[in-house]
Amino acid sequence: MKMTMRTTKKRQLHPGTLALSLTAAALLGTASPAGAQTTTTTETTRTQFGPLAMPGCTETVDVTFDETHQAQTQSGPNFVRISDTFHDQGSGIGEASRAQYQFSSMSQNNFRSSSPNFSVRILAREHLIRQGASVPGDDLYIVQKILMNVTNGHAVFNVQNVQSACK
Amino acid sequence: MSIATTRDTGCGPKVLRITTLVVLIATLSVAHHAQAQLVAPITLNYAASVPIAKVVPNSCTGGYVLVKGTMKLSITTVQGGQVPFTVAVAYTSSGTGQDALADGTLVVDGSQKANYAYSSQMLTDASFPSTPQDFMQDPAVRDFLVRSTGDGSDQLLLDTAIDLTFTNGVPSAAVLQGLSVACSAVP
């Protein structure tokens, strides 16, 4: 299940602001075209996964998790900047032993491009922590392939696949 | 030029045909070479290594950890393939963490726990419709610091932020922006 919420702010620079921006741009050594418009969009996408029967280290583990991407995209003439904060929270249950696993994490991906159209695939790992006493050899991870597709400065996130890995 | 000279000397149509053929073959050869250059993808490999040594707060225990490790980057750019421009980066990290004081002095009074260890490989790949003038990526490179005893009760999540900028498809030096640490042990 996937839910998306989006807010957009467009900003046309006023003459006073423009003068200030041009001054700042001159100080920073970058040029900003007159009347340049920047658009900042914040989009939150929440996806629920599972239960997924994943081959574990000692047994099959049924994994369920939520992934939230909060992407802030700033686009203007000749650039797009994306800051994606993603949060994963989930749990697992060993099918045979009923052992409990849990994980929770938050990380950030940042990108900047002169091209408004591009795509990036990222491999992200989660470590499933077995609750209670540790069991030797039970060091379970899930690895997800996340695709970020940017079209005209608009980023869309999709998890392409989820696999388990035993370290 | 050679065709005009042939005409001026009056050497006849055979010489003209041979000269024309030579010029045509030379032209086709140059054209074929140029086409081959356009079609054949150009693959370039780069490597970088970033040493890491930093004292970070251990939010699981309230103490500090001295993290020492290395992040190796293996970068491949391909220009002119099926996708006009692609960048693939493999981030390979490894290191250790030791219980320490805020100033980096190791704890050796017996209260220290087994060292943390970490290692991982993270991959990214980006595709573009043409070589971008400017592209920067700073993905979350995650490592899980787990005590060498396997005790996960104070496992740490370490995010290493490294800016990697490409100008007209050529990478510049990888710059370590910082480390971010969180307790990832779930109570």
What does this structure look like?
- The complex is a heterodimer of chains A (167) and B (187).
- Chain A has one domain (43-166).
- The longest helix of chain A has 14 residues, at 15-28.
- Chain A is built from 1 helix and 8 strands.
- Chain A starts with a strand and ends with a strand.
- With 167 residues, chain A is mainly beta.
- Chain B is of the alpha+beta class.
- Chain B folds into 2 domains: 2-38; 41-183, no CATH class.
- Chain B has helices at 2-9, 13-39; strands at residues 42-57, 64-79, 85-100, 116-128, 134-138, 141-147, 156-167, 170-171, 175-183.
- The longest helix of chain B is centred in the first third of the chain and has 27 residues, at 13-39.
- Chain B is elongated, with a radius of gyration of 29 Å.
- The termini of chain B are far apart.
- Residues 1-32 of chain B have low confidence and may be disordered.
- Classes of the chains: A mainly beta (167), B alpha+beta (187).
- Chains A and B meet through strand 5 and strand 6 of A and strand 4, strand 5, strand 6 and strand 7 of B.
Strand composition percent of chain A: over 45%
Total helical segments of chain B: 2
- In terms of quaternary structure, what is this? heterodimer
Strand order of the largest sheet of chain A: 1-2-3-4-5-6-7-8
Largest sheet of chain B: 9 strands, antiparallel
Question: Which two chains share the most extensive interface?
Answer: A-B, 33 and 33 residues
* Span of the ends, CA to CA of chain B: 86 Å
Rounded average pLDDT of chain B: 83
Number of strands of chain A: 8
Q: Number of helical runs of chain A? A: 1
Distance between the termini of chain A: 29 Å
What features would you highlight for this structure?
heterodimer, A: 167 residues, mainly beta, 8 strands, elongated, B: 187 residues, alpha+beta, 9-stranded antiparallel sheet, 2 helices, 9 strands, 19% helix, 51% strand, disordered N terminus
